[in-house]
Amino acid sequence: MKIVEQVLKGDKRAAGKLISMIEDDDAGATEALAAIYPHTGKAHVVGFTGPPGVGKSSLINRLIREFRVRDRKVGVVAVDPTSPFTGGAVLGDRIRMSDTGTDPGVFIRSMATRGHSGGLALATFDAVKVLDALGIDLIFVETVGAGQSEIDIASRAHTTVVVQMPQSGDAVQALKAGILEIGDIYVVNKTDLGGADSMASNLDFMLEERQGWRPPVVQTSALEGKGIKELADAINKHYRYLKGGGGWRRRESDRARKELYESMKRLLAEAYSDETEGVAFEEVVGAIVVRKTDPRSAAKTLLRDLKLPK
Amino acid sequence: MKIVEQVLKGDKRAAGKLISMIEDDDAGATEALAAIYPHTGKAHVVGFTGPPGVGKSSLINRLIREFRVRDRKVGVVAVDPTSPFTGGAVLGDRIRMSDTGTDPGVFIRSMATRGHSGGLALATFDAVKVLDALGIDLIFVETVGAGQSEIDIASRAHTTVVVQMPQSGDAVQALKAGILEIGDIYVVNKTDLGGADSMASNLDFMLEERQGWRPPVVQTSALEGKGIKELADAINKHYRYLKGGGGWRRRESDRARKELYESMKRLLAEAYSDETEGVAFEEVVGAIVVRKTDPRSAAKTLLRDLKLPK
Q1: In this structure, CATH architecture of domain B2-258
Q2: Considering only CB atoms, which chain A residues are within 8 Å of B260?
Q3: Which ipTM did the prediction report?
């Protein structure tokens, strides 16, 4: 496929087009993704999560510049999994206007994936694969908030950065939200607001070493450009830790396992979509409603008679 | 199965045991659920959602008493889908201690379903089926918060009640959270705090008629027992609307469709669990990690070679 060749040669426009195809659930995207897959696995993927308003976008914009100084090609995939009712992709416009937009070593893309049949996480990491095949060294995955689906996405990265701010509540609240278990690096952003020291030491007190890595707490002010070098160093240090100790392989396996299940789920959705076996599927739904069969027995029948899409 | 006969005879202890089996992913639960399924579909299922602290539990306790006066058998399934990291089921203890606990016409149960292989929604509605088969007329499904997964659960009910309180933010925030699209009945609780009138009229202004039903806004004070009769009347009115206009069948179909997909997903998880084909599955994961194959191609192979569990 031409688009695959173009992406592998580093053509950013082709990469953008392929990501649009992924968003649109285009049949060609599946084929292209299979073709680029052998050329992926080199990029370091860093996920960012934290409540809305803590300054993740500003932080990422600062990091992009820092890593460009260090001569690394940087990509951003911004994800906006808001309510299925209200839609999303507010984020994209904001980030697209950032001052790094014209640099050829930077690729920024927001995902608008309402109703993607493979789920938001799968679509996001399909976009990550495109950037990886494009030759990007470092890919930031940015989520808008810290809901369950966003935490799920951010924690599929090799390195998960959890961003907080001094005002965002005391340490006990952080504990409640379950974020203490998912971060490889913690950031207290907006140190300019004050109170960052106590928040950082509270966080630091609660964090524990896991598999030879003790998550550092970095204080930053994206507004004033403070702490950005330290955060970039922490990201690089975690990369070396992963590559040195086998953590890389474990995280790649975790993601592969999840993507395998999601792909199976997606194949099922395709096999029983409106265009193909839709009628039979709805007949089965009707049989469940009138209690002729139960959901599990019906599911077995559907799996047994499954005709896989090409 | 003995437990099935007992549940169908109205044995509450047997129902409790069967729900525990569902929580534990017990193999016997699957068989029992298939056996009770033909005896379900009679109960009116009412889902409650809204931010933590708006008083959903108190409201439900008041409603239980109101519907007991009206001689209806009432059940509650309380769901606590908190972070996968911190667990849940705080709710259960609270609700179990309610003053309706000893009434034979009331069945209250909280779900603790960390890691249920079919997902929290499937487990919840499996419990609902048990209560339905037990002969309960009216089943309340209570979620702790208003996150995406909780909204998903509440909106699978026949009737979805969205609970707010005057202090929980202005109407624009309600709009943002996407709750205006999901409720069949809106409640402004804690009228004792003041400001309920303006919240209620704001809500009322934004709500639109959908398929012949205009969601009413009911003001209540669970603390003082005010507005409970009106809420119970609204719930009954919605039931008559659903039964009269075909909405019942549509909602049953929606749920059947979702449960069918979830059951397929669950069957896949079982077929490729550690105990059975675990090794082959992990081999495939390894092949993905080293880029010998891609997730979608691997998923096709696994689906093709699928050995369905009994």
Answers
A1: 3-Layer(aba) Sandwich (3.40)
A2: 281, 284-285, 288, 295, 298-299, 302
A3: 0.80
> Is B259 an interface residue toward A (CB < 8 Å)?
yes
Helix, strand, coil % (nearest 5) of chain A? 55, 15, 35
- Tell whether A27 is within 8 A of chain B (Cβ): no
Percent of chain B with pLDDT over 70: 85
A13: distance to nearest CA of chain B, Å? 24
The yes-or-no verdict on residue A266 having pLDDT over 90 is no
Residue from A264, A272, A282 whose CB has the most chain B CBs within 10 Å, to mutate = A264
Q: Which of residues 161-180 of A touch B (CB under 8 A)?
A: 175-178, 180
Two tokens, residue B223: 């603390």
Interface of B with A in 71-110 (CB under 8 A): 82-86
Looking at per-residue pLDDT, the higher value among B265 and B142 belongs to B142
What are B86-104's pLDDT values in tens digits?
333 444 444 444 445 578 8
Residue A276, pLDDT score? 54
Percent of chain A predicted with pLDDT > 90: 48
| Separation in Å, CA of A182 to nearest CA in chain B | 9
Rounded to a whole number of angstroms, the distance from the CA of B182 to the nearest CA of chain A is 9
Q: Do B263 and A147 touch (CB under 8 A)?
A: no
Q: In this complex, which of A281, A291, A297 lies closest to B40 when CB atoms are compared?
A: A291
Query: For the residues A271-293, what does the mean pLDDT come to?
Result: 79
Distance CA B151, CA B245 (A): 24
Burial (CB count <10 Å: 0-12, 13-18, 19+), residue B171: middle
Q: Which fold has domain A40-245?
A: Rossmann fold (3.40.50)
DSSP A94: H
d(CA A193, CA A215): 23
Could you tell me if residue B61 is left (phi over 0), alpha (psi between -120 and 50 degrees) or otherwise beta?
A: alpha
Provide the whole-model pTM.
0.71
Distance in Å, alpha carbon of A149 to nearest chain B alpha carbon? 9
Tell me if B178 and A84 make a contact (CB, 8 A cut-off). yes
Contacts 24+ apart (CB under 8 A), B292-297: B294/A33, B294/A34, B294/A37, B294/A38, B295/A37, B295/A256, B295/A259, B295/A260, B295/A262, B295/A263, B296/A30, B296/A33, B296/A34, B296/A263, B296/A266, B296/A267, B297/A34
Q: With H, G, I as helix, E, B as strand and everything else as coil, classify residue B120.
A: helix
Least confident of A183-197, B79-93, B234-248: B79-93
> At B277, is the pLDDT very low, low, confident or very high (cuts 50, 70, 90)?
low
Q: Please check whether residue B301 touches A, CB under 8 A.
A: no
Q: Residue B103 carries which DSSP code?
A: -
Tell me the pairing of strands B106-111 and B74-79.
parallel
User: Least CA distance to B38: which residue of chain A?
Assistant: A291
For residue A40, the chain B residues in CB contact (below 8 A) are 291
Which residue of B85, B162, B254 to mutate against A (max A Cβ within 10 Å)?
B85
Per-residue pLDDT tens over the stretch A57-101: 899 999 999 999 999 999 999 987 553 433 334 444 444 444 455
What are the residue boundaries of the structural domains of chain B, listed by start? 2-258, 259-304
